[in-house]
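Figure 2 data, in text form.
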Amino acid sequence: MRITDIKPLPVWVGNRNQLVVKVETDEGIYGLGESGLSGRELAVIGALQHFREFLVGKDPMQIGRIWQELYRSQYFEGGRVLLAAQSAIDLALYDIAGKALNVPVYQLLGGKQREAIPCFATASGAGPALVEDVKLLMQHGWTVIRTAPMMPDAAGGFVGDSDLFDPRASIPLTAHWLTKVREECGSEIVLGIDYHHRLSIAETASFCQRMPAGTLDFLEEPIRDETPEAYAALRKLTPVPFAVGEEFASKWQFLPYIEQHLTDFARVDICNVGGFTEAMKVAGWAEAHYIDLMPHNPLGPVCTAATLHLAAAVPNFAWLEVRVTPTENLYYGAAGVNEADLLFPVQPRLDGTVFPVPTAPGLGVEIDEERARSQEWRFWEAPHWRRPDGSVTNW
């Protein structure tokens, strides 16, 4: 069997692009992967075109060797663009291998260690609406719930869609309502927040100190991750567990966070870190340090399917992020239609708050390629946020 083509399939789902990659072979077996670099898909497509030039004609079953060749075949190795492309190819190759051998991908990773994959939901409401969102999720059986930062508006309410973010205005408001959630919803739920690297060390410490001990079970990426020493400094200022790693594009980026225990949950993104080949190495490394995986999963059904196989195969697993719940659905378009259902007729489906472990050969997801190719490419740009003084800040 030989690779005959690598096709990028950029599709619009909900409110942003997804970059699906199809790897074809001369035996008619094909695999699907997905890139995790949202908003910069054209750069990834360029990298895929470079990789295609020397991958056509290769044996797709030599997955580990191909990974090394993709990584080491250039002087300027690594980086988020190249690893996003490499991740998609790696996932597609595992999909091909599973289909060729007529087994689910997790069988290629050592077999399944669980029958279902537990998930966490996101409550995106603000103020009293946050408490109601959490209660609604609890009514539907959710026990692990993540929240988001809040901002006040000029009328004393809450800012919805805005390009303004003031950390010092957000901190007291968010801390107050998280405390309210814990008081009204009890101690049984696992409660966390994703601050989306919008704070400094001092701001994060102030935020954590404004809540009673035990309010938060995890704090996701409060500061940027380029400097591990910053997280080491922050660790001394708060006992709240950290969840870090969704932006990491290799096991080497995870190195200090695992070795120095700067994260308590590894937010590995299989579509950014290097696919199954690299994610399994990160998982084993994290296991040796008693760190559980808590995978990042904000993309589409291909990412979800691939992450389910990873989650099934590793012992050290906490929860999978899922963005299709009673409080949000990233797949719904302007017409109120679930666009992922139209594009991916075969995909994993939630059963309550868990995903059953897939049983189909390969990843267990299929795309309507004709529908995908009928779409026009759309530019999408993440919000460009500013602070009250006009300076640029993180989204």
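Caption note: The first strand starts at residue 3 and ends at 13.
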